[in-house]
Every structure is written in C-alpha cells, then in structure tokens.
Amino acid sequence: MSVDQTSWEAAVRHLYEDAYPYDATGPRRHENWVVDVLALMARAPDPRGWARLDDAAQNPEREASPTYPFVAHPPEYISSRLQEIDRDSAENLLLALTDDGCTLSNLSRFTESEGELRAMTRTILTRYGDTASFHTNVNKPGHVSGTLDFTGTSPTTEPPATRRSPAPDEAI
Questions:
Q1: pLDDT band at 155, cuts 50/70/90?
Q2: pLDDT of residue 148
Q3: CB under 8 Å, gap of 24 or more: what pairs does 6-13 form?
Q4: Which H, E and C letters describe the chain, residue by residue?
Q5: pLDDT 10s digits, 16-64
Q6: Rounded CA gap, 51 and 13, in Å?
Q7: Cβ contact 128:94 at 8 Å
Q8: Which residues fall within 8 angstroms of residue 104, CB to CB, at 6 or more apart?
Q9: According to the model, what pLDDT value does residue 76 have?
Q10: Which residues face 148 on adjacent strands?
C-alpha cells in the first residue's frame, strides 16, 4: 500500500496544526538509522521533497544551535533511550502528540471522530511501509511489552523526541 503526497501532507498538517511540531522525514543513508535521526534533527531535507512542519525553524536560537530545539548527542546516547513499540502504539503516539499533554484525551478538540483521526495516523505511517519499526523515548508502558498506554496522565520522556526506524531510503 502506498500514500500520495497530498494525502500524507494533509494528514500531518491537520493533526498537528495546533501543536508545536517538528514533523519531518529525512534520507536513510546509514546502516545504523540513529545516525540518520541525528541528520534529521539537523534538518536534513525530505528525500521526496514533501512538506515538513518545523515551528522552531525561524527561532533565533537556531542560529547558535542548528539542531534547536534538539540537543546534539552521539548515536549511543540516543539509542540507549529508545524503546521499540508496535504499530498500534505508534498510531496512538501520533494521536497523543497532537497536544502538549501527550494523552488521548486531547482528541475531543477535533471535529472528526476517533476513527477518522486514526485513519489519518495510518495515512502518515503508510508512507514508511509495512516493515517499518517504531521507536520512542516516551515512557508510558502499556500492559504488554512493546506497547504504550496514553489513556492516563502525561508520560515522561528522555531526549531525543520520538523516532521510528525508517524505510530503507528514509528516516523520520
């Protein structure tokens, strides 16, 4: 299954229009995809030329630190703070990240049903294929290993922000 640029960009823009987002996809160039994440944090261009949301792009602090609002860390630091999650948890995470509270309670602000919003998250994830793996630094464990639960209070995180293992030619 594939997704077209217009559908993907519409889903990303709609879900994150009221958030402070950095939603981007970068090229996959290294066997260790965490190195590609570092390039993405430094604003590597999208390999397909698709849109990104980057509210910090015009922030004056970027002049002193090109990775702002991220802190540059070595790959080992990043990978040690990530946990792999399943695709359903990745969908829930995309929904939870639409608001600062990082819970699913924020879905009430949308006019769409939860099912329609979930369809948007599936549109976003479809770009990366069925074999993509998903990783995050959000610490909100579900009842089953490799899952997350966003039904309660705000989760804790460790830098850097959420990442997923990309398709062979992309990093997100």
A1: low
A2: 78
A3: 7/123, 8/50, 8/123, 8/124, 8/126, 8/127, 9/50, 9/51, 11/120, 11/121, 11/123, 11/124, 12/51, 12/53, 12/124, 13/51, 13/53
A4: CCCCHHHHHHHHHHHHCCCCCEECCEECCCCCHHHHHHHHHCCCCCCCCCCCEECCCCCCHHHHCCCCCCCCCCHHHHHCCCEEECHHHHHHHHHHCCCCCCCHHHHHHCCCCHHHHHHHHHHHHHCCCCCCEEEECEECECCCCCCECCCCCCCEECCCCCEEECCCCEEC
A5: 987 777 888 888 899 998 998 888 888 889 999 998 888 887 777 777 7
A6: 9
A7: no
A8: 92, 95, 96, 150, 151
A9: 93
A10: 141
